[in-house]
Amino acid sequence: MKLSAETQTHERYFQELMRSDCPMTKLDAHGDPRLAPFGRILRASGLDELPQIFNVLCGEMSLVGPRPCLPNEFAGYEPWQRERMNGLPGLTGYWQVNGKNKTTFNEMIAMDLFYLKNMSILLDLKIMLKTFAVIGEQLFESRPARQRNRQERDPRPPKAPDRQGEGGRSPTTQVLHT
Hints:
This protein is mainly alpha-helical. It is built from nine helices and two strands, in the order H-H-H-E-H-H-E-H-H-H-H. It starts with 7 loop residues before the first helix and ends with a helix.
């Protein structure tokens, strides 16, 4: 985000996601003007989360767990939803690798509660391994729409440019027509 970016847009958007039963797409997926240059790539790759590794090293976060929420978001949680904060927040989690922006708010909460009830080293390893595949998918999806659309229409690699002579004809065609 840009320095001193306004936050009301995000707060209103998140409140609506909490009330609605629609997928939790990122606000920046819609061309958020608050995003700094190259911010889309940083967000899609997860590099914007990298500084949180210091929180992991200090014991304030875990590698795997529910994602932390903002205090104003937590204030809007119902009591059963607040249970997702009963564990250390993580850099990645069960929700992130099992739908993330394709799930509703309540589905996210349910996945976080599932993780907290089933925490294990094996589950954490599975989540960490799956995280890399999800990041790759997010990077692919974050490409500009026109680039994606062009590739989806014609998945073949681009052809080498034809050697065109005058009038758009190949040299052989020109010889035959002269």
